[in-house]
Design goal:
Chain A has 107 residues and is of the alpha+beta class. Chain A has helices spanning 28-39, 65-73, 75-88; strands spanning 12-21, 45-53, 55-62, 89-106.
């Protein structure tokens, strides 16, 4: 299965989360997997793409700004966000975007 | 140095390029590096973040939609795009976005 998210026709919304980890895991992998699973059950979730190679980039796609706000306020996600600042991340940047157009290619 | 792009206050623009490679390199690494260097010299370029782990995600940041259009039409970039379809990518998706807000954290 393709790891490229199957998103609908634009407009829709993207959250680009770029991060640098601290050393050690501190149960990060476990929580990251839990967040991937949990995000996928949220209203308005459209898909997610993720890769880490020095820097980590996770892009999640949503049908509205309200869906993004709700996910940010999710109780379990708030726990993860707090732990992220305290333990897991050296630095991060979150960018909330409106996807205006897209195109692709598949062999 | 941080590998998280230092972008100005929003609004600005992002191009999310998500891809799956074919097998073998076929001089991909060389061209990818050339494109990173070349993009950084283009008018309106603000920064770039990239990681590959199964899927590849490259996000480039720009100050306007016109800067994105110009980069897409860059002659050497057109060569890379054609070769990408012919040789390097199994599939890809390009999403052009307006970054509406951002926030971050640094230890």
């Amino acid at each position: 299965m393709s790891r490229i998210a199957k998103t609908p026709a634009p407009p829709y919304y993207a959250v680009i989360f770029t991060s640098e980890r601290t050393d050690g895991d501190q149960r990060y992998a476990e929580m990251a997997e839990e967040m991937v699973q949990l995000a996928a059950t949220q209203p308005g979730f459209l898909g997610m793409e993720s890769a880490r190679e020095g820097v980590g980039i996770t892009v999640s796609y949503w049908d509205s700004p309200e869906a993004i706000r709700q996910w940010k306020r999710n109780e379990r996600h708030l726990v993860a966000q707090r732990q992220g600042i305290e333990e897991w991340y050296q630095s991060y940047k979150t960018r909330v975007c409106k996807v205006e157009r897209d195109y692709g290619f598949e062999k």
